[in-house]
Structure formats: C-alpha cells, structure tokens
Amino acid sequence: MLQPNRCLVVAVLLAAGCSSGAGEHVAPLRASLTAAESAVFVGGRTRLIASFDGDEAGIDGVGPVENGVPVETPPLSRATTFTLRVRRGQEHAEAQATVEARYRNAFRILRDAPIAQTTHLAAPLPDGRAILMGGNTSETPNVPDSTLTQVFDPATETFARGPELLFSAAAHEFTSLVQLSNGGFLLVGGGINAGLGGRTSAATQMFDPAGARFVEVGDAVLTGISGRTSAPLGDGGALLTGGFVSNRAERYDPVEKKWRAVGNMLHVRGGHTATLLRDGRVLIAGGSTCCDQPAPSNLAYANTAEIYDPATDAFSATGSMEVARGLHAAALLPDGRVLISGGEGNDPAAPPLGAEIFDPATGRFSSAGNLLTPRDSHTAVTLTDGRVLVAGGEVPPLVAGSAGVGVPGTEIFDPATGRWTEGPTIDRDFLAATVTMLSNGKVLVFGGEDRAGFPRANAALFE
C-alpha cells in the first residue's frame, strides 16, 4: 500500500514582511502544501492540502484553493510537482509538493470491445481517448480491410463506435500511421479494398479532433510502394521513407497540407525504423535492402543507419548498428537516446536478441543487453517513469518451428540500470494486437488475432 506523505514542504517566501505606517510589524506571508500520499499508482489521484494566510491562493493545474480544505488532483501519469501560489497585496509566496506515479507492473483485463479487430491501427487522441481503426473485423470477417473505428474512453474503460474512415485501412504493408508532434495523426494509404485505384497507396486522411471526423488531405507523392516507415517532424509535419525496393522519401507540410518529395535515402530500406530525435532530426536504422517479396531465401537486412535533417531535406550516414536487423522496434528514451530491440536478422534461425542504444551526441550505437525472448514486429513503448515496455510481436518462423507465433510475455528495459527483466503476461498472446500509450500513463493492448487468424475483441491495460 502506498504510504501517506507526512512531510510539509517549506514555503518559498518571495516577499518579506513589512511594517505598517504606525510601526506595526506584519508577519511574513505563510504558505505550505502537503499531499495525502507521496505516491499513487499511474492514473490515480490524491488530495492536496494548502495552508496559508494570504488573501487568495491557487495550485497550478488544480485551481483556486481555500486554507486547509483538501482538493483532488487530476489523474497522474507521472511524477508531478504541484506549486501553491499565495498572494496578499503586493506580497506573494510559493510552496511545492511532489507526488510520484508508480506502475503496478501488471495487466488488468477489461471487458471485450463490441467489435473484434485485427490488422488495425491505433492512435491516442488529444482528449486522452484512443481510436482503433480499420483492419479485419468481426462485422466483416471475410474482408481484410474496413472503414470501421472504435474509440476507447479511459475514464469509463469502455469502447464505443467512432467516426467512419474516409477509405479503408489495414496495418503493415498497406497503411502508414503518423503520430504528429502536435497530437494529431495521419493515415497514409488505404487497404486493398479502398477502391481508390492508383491512389490507394497515396491517399491521406487526417483526424480532425474539433469535428470528431476524418478529413482528406493531399496525396502522398509516391504510389504503389508498400512497407513504408513514417516519423513525425518537429514542425507538426511528417516524414515517409522507403518501402520494399525503394530509397525514396517525402515530407508532409502541415501548413500546405500537402506532401512533397525530398532527397533519397542513402540505402534502399523496408521494415526499418524512423525515430524523431530531440534536436528535430530523424534516425533511420536497419531494414531490408532488397526484395519485392521478403522471404528467407532472398532477404538481406542492413546494419546501417542514417540521419534525416529537416533543415536541409538531406540524408547523411551515421554509425552502424552492431547487428543487421529489420522488423525491429525503436523507442526514444527520456535522455534523448534511442533503444533498438529485436527484429529479424540475416540468419533466420538465429534472430538478434541483442538490443542497442543510439546516442545522438556521438552518432554511435552501443550494446544494451539481450532480450529474453526473440521477437519481431513488436512494439516498444517508453513508460512515464523512463522504462521501456516491449510487448507483442511474434517469434520468427524458423525459431517457432512453424509459422510465427505470438509472444504472450512482455519485457521491460530500465535505462538507469541497462538491464532487461521479465514483464507481466496475460492469458492470451499479443499476435497482431495494438499497443497504445494513453495520456494517463497506462498502456492499452487491444485486439489482434487468434490462432485461426480470426479477429479478437479482448483488451487489457498495463498499469
């Protein structure tokens, strides 16, 4: 059980006491702030109590408060420092209290969604909800792609039908999802039944939070390319790179709402990662370097990496990974470095277990220990406490002994120690499920497919 916080935080006096015209001394302005609990679980709340003798007071992020009257915090996704500000005439004082937000490191199974989905896409919404889009659904089990969406509300932990997509979407080779830095997102490309002819792989739709609907924006420049990788840019735009047998790249302008071609990557890449760095550049790493249809007999993965600079629209080489890989995952760490994990390698029977960290300051990769389980096509989510949760994906086919199977367990990397530890397991595997970080700090795992390939409606929260 999390323990109450018994310490008072000493006020920071910003204006000293003064004397009245009659020589009467006015006591210094007093302010202190305490929290009922020093730590809560992620997504939880606690009460704050302000003690002061000023004329008015308020807590940043909470609002006005009265002396000695408890107020409730909003749900806490991470360690949060609250600041009490007190005023009396021209005097003012401040006091602070910090509340930690900790993970239980467990999954909690939720009630199933009304509709099952697999090969779908998922994105957080600016209001804290999450939207699950397209893919193969239980409503149309014989159709691989759909325009259906469902919205998950973390306040009620329920799913409701969302706005229809303008054209169908399907994950992996067909539709790219770009989570923009301003909180919005783009879907680039439609599913195989989108009915858009030559525009199927280029048509782009954006979610409009104000209108709670999807709107179409300018087409991507390149058509007919599958397996592309996307990344947000610092200006609210996006970068779209590569695809099988392609080194082409294009950029979305959020002002013009149009795509335009930029310089070519140094290498052909598909199944690579693209990660926005703190300085606005994009790290592009690994991926396949050949082959229209990837197969163990003709597929080659690269260990090379390169950097895209949005200021010049140019690509330049950087240090190479220690291991060639594709279909891996990348996660930006709180200190600006990038964790690379898993994937497939050039020896199908021995996929890369070793993880690596890219340091933008040196342009080099270094070892980051080993995964406990080989996996590819998985998700790596940076938690609000700085650790990285690795979930989902599949064991590579030659390791599994047959077609790839879903990985039921999770792993957690702690950059403070550089160690991997076993994470929680739920009673179903994560094959083709989406893994979405919510604004309350919890992680939603939804859908996917069963061993027969049919969509699932199950959902769970990592918290």
Structure description:
The protein has 463 residues and is mostly beta strands. Helices cover 1% and strands 38% of the residues. The chain contains 1 helix and 41 strands. Strands 1, 3, 5, 6, 8 and 9 form a 6-stranded mixed β-sheet that branches. A hairpin with a 4-residue loop joins strand 23 and strand 24 (258-262). The longest helix is centred in the C-terminal third of the chain and has 4 residues, at 397-400. The model is unreliable at 3-20 and 292-297 (pLDDT under 50).
What distinguishing features does this structure have?
463 residues; mainly beta; 41 strands; 38% strand
Low-confidence stretches: 3-20, 292-297
Question: How many E-type strands?
Answer: 41
Gyration radius, in Å: 25 Å
Summarize the amount of helix as a percent range: under 10%
Backbone structural class: mainly beta
Query: Can you count the helices?
Result: 1
Mean pLDDT: 89
Q: What can be said about this structure in brief?
A:
The protein has 463 residues and is mostly beta strands. The protein contains one helix and 41 strands. The relative contact order is 0.11.
